[in-house]
Amino acid sequence: xxxxxxxxxxxxxxxxxxxxxxxxxxxxxxxxxxxxxxxxxxxxxxxxxxxxxxxxxxxxxxxxxxxxxxxxxxxxxxxxxxxxxxxxxxxxxxxxxxxxxxxxxxxxxxxxxxxxxxxxxxxxxxxxxxxxxxxxxxxxxxxxxxxxxxxxxxxxxxxxxxxxxxxxxxxxxxxxxxxxxxxxxxxxxxxxxxxxxxxxxxxxxxxxxxxxxxxxxxxxxxxxxxxxxxxxxxxxxxxxxxxxxxxx
Length: 248
Hints:
The chain is of the alpha/beta class. It has a single domain, classed as Alpha/Beta hydrolase fold, catalytic domain (Rossmann fold), CATH 3.40.50. 41% of the residues lie in helices and 16% in strands. It is built from nine helices and seven strands. It has helices at residues 62-76, 91-101, 119-123, 129-145, 151-154, 156-165, 190-204, 222-225, 227-247; strands at 8-11, 17-21, 43-47, 83-88, 106-112, 174-179, 210-215. α2 links the parallel β4 and β5. α1 crosses α2 and α2 runs parallel beside α6. The N and C termini lie far apart (39 Å). The model has no long low-confidence stretch (mean pLDDT 90).
């Protein structure tokens, strides 16, 4: 049975289950600088998402597929809920959908410079020539050679539609970590950066328990550039959960 599961690694012996959800186009190694700091905090699951088999046109909704894939992996490994989900970049869309569809299975959520469901729609009118070309290349590659490495990015708006159709986001502990280093203007224009920062503040407001941390020394790749802020956010969230349980 385990041979049919997506590539994964489970570390730690006991405690809460912490699931690290990668961004698009990267594997579980993207957490290699974060993982050592999580020792002793709980059982840490790292895994690589895999697309369902079949032609591009026959793909099921990716959001529901990846949520189901993760739940199947957790069940097969005998890891009971509730889970703490830590998601970077586009992985944040799947964590968002997971929490909406299965709120009783989520103890908390840490979004690491995560994609906002409305990101693509809000970015499109203000993209510069580089951004439009980059987007066109992704879409064209997926049409010609998908499904593959860029399919998730090409289908971000469809994943966002799944989130819009899902139940409301639950009242759970939520920490949003936002990159504090402004990217070069040729890569992301000041207008798009301002939208991104507004989107991050909106993510904080998903839950009454939402908090924001700014990764002041990091660009978008927070897991590599400032891993300690992710570890600190998790420590704080787990400590608050223990205090709440003790108070109850």
